[in-house]
Design brief:
Length: 268
């Protein structure tokens, strides 16, 4: 693959970036219980929010073609005393579907971390897939004494200090821009009228995997309640391995089936 180049997003890029984001996430919408994706609307609204960090809205290009984008906003870790510490959260991180699993997302992330550090930011905190983001250097936020807004900590809630000791002595609850939680399907449908029609995705049914598993493993996966392979991809290998009836052969089969359908799953 040719060298990836990065640059800051400009207003002239806005619609193209929203189109990229829409394409990257279109097939995940129904898997989240939605009829239509809302990530392109999220990008649109984040740019209008006071928490938006324009210097960290970064584009990835290959031969002048827009193939990836990452966007950041300011978040906070608030101590019990009320003292707040500014942090960063990113998302959506978008890569065109034909360019996924080629290292573009990781390269875009790492480049943005360097820019964020140079800008004087302390750390990045996200909710993400616990099989993927630790490969980049994220660690469970609870290791740093940081919980979500409700006081919980879990594998998918992770932090990335931008320099050594960045989170030393910082403990508290994590809060992010409310725009992430205020996207309605009605608003998404209305916003989507600004884009060309797209065929609805038909997710690959979970039965494709279940039919390849032994009885005990099949029952274990059925208990997760996933209806498609894409939804299955949100359950980490750690979570699945802990299920009764799952052994090494089952993990190998799950990974193989997911790969056959273009989905990355599990640790390496």
């Amino acid at each position: 693959m040719k060298a990836i180049t990065f640059r800051k997003e400009t207003p002239d890029d806005y619609h193209a970036v929203e189109e990229l984001t829409r394409e990257a996430f279109w097939n995940t919408a129904r898997d989240k219980g939605n009829r239509i994706c809302d990530e392109h609307l999220l990008v649109h609204r984040l740019r209008k929010s006071p928490s938006f960090v324009p210097e960290l809205s970064i584009i990835a290009e290959l031969d002048g073609k827009l193939v990836g984008h990452i966007i950041y906003s300011i978040s906070k870790v608030v101590e019990d005393s009320g003292k707040a510490h500014d942090m960063l959260i990113f998302g959506p991180l978008s890569v065109l579907s034909n360019y996924q699993n080629k290292g573009i997302g990781k390269a875009l992330m790492l480049h943005s971390f360097d820019v964020a550090k140079d800008l004087g930011h302390r750390a990045v905190i996200i909710f993400g897939h616990p099989d993927y983001y630790p490969r980049v250097g994220f660690r469970r936020a609870g290791e740093f004494g940081i919980t979500d807004a409700k006081g919980n900590t879990f594998d998918a809630f992770m932090a990335y200090p931008l320099f050594e000791g960045a989170l030393d002595g910082i403990h508290g609850r994590f809060h992010y821009d409310a725009v992430y939680d205020t996207l309605s399907q009605e608003d998404s449908f209305e916003f989507d009228k600004n884009f060309p029609p797209t065929l609805e995705d038909v997710p690959v049914a979970i039965d494709v995997l279940l039919n390849r598993l032994e009885a005990k493993a099949r029952k274990a996966i059925e208990r997760l309640g996933h209806h498609s392979l894409a939804r299955m991809s949100h359950s980490s290998q750690c979570e699945v391995s802990a299920l009764e009836g799952i052994d090494a052969n089952a993990i190998k089969t799950i990974r193989k089936v997911m790969q056959e359908h273009g989905l990355r799953w599990g640790t390496r």
